[in-house]
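Aim 2 progress update. The chain analyzed this quarter is reproduced below.
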Amino acid sequence: YTAGAIRSIAFGLPAPILDGNVKRVLARLDDIAEPIDRAETERHLWDRAAALVDRDQPGRFNQAFMELGSLVCRPRHPDCPPCPVRDFCLAYTRGTQDQRPVRTPRKRIPHYHVAAGVIWHRTDPDRFLIAQRPAQGMLGGLWEFPGGKQDPGESLPQTLARELREALRIEVDVGQKLTEVKHAFSHFRITLHAFHARHLSGEPQTIGMDDWRWVTVDEAEAFPMAKRDRAILASLRMGERAR
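Predicted structure tokens:
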């Protein structure tokens, strides 16, 4: 787009421009039903823009083309009655102008709810459990407040109790919610719900984790953690603990 603008406006060369406004006008002129963000459609739009550009006054033509898209052929509710190219517009003729241009629908990003536990030691009230994620996989080797993803029909406290039973072979009494942390990865989003929990029984096992430790808040600072678990640790340090 920038190169075409410089060549046509600054140097008077018959170079096409293809910004968002021009794409929209062309998509309506030709009533293009394919998504304009596809490579093959964009190639067609470049060819059409090149064929239409005025050879004598390319700069003025391109500026007028962009203004037509900006002021008249708007993204929503195009102002068709005064449009100077209305008689040549296939979308206007067919009544599809409000449906053009078409874009590829964005993929819906999955959103998961995850329960994590601040699991307090039975006999040492200043220590809680952290676990090390397996070396292979996402966030491999980092330490975390253990827990897992919520299953359908499950409450978050039920999720936490089940995950700890499966991954560490311990039983807990899930208590008050401590905090909530939202985090986005490239292909999914999570809301992490952190709960206080009291360790009832079972020696932690490394079934779904590589290691585990009972630590104080100060000791936990030395362990490498993801940002979301640092947020839970910060909540503990701020005195939000309620057991």
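The first strand starts at residue 111 and ends at 120. Residues 111-237 form a domain with the Nucleoside Triphosphate Pyrophosphohydrolase fold (CATH 3.90.79.10). These observations will guide the mutagenesis experiments scheduled for the next reporting period.
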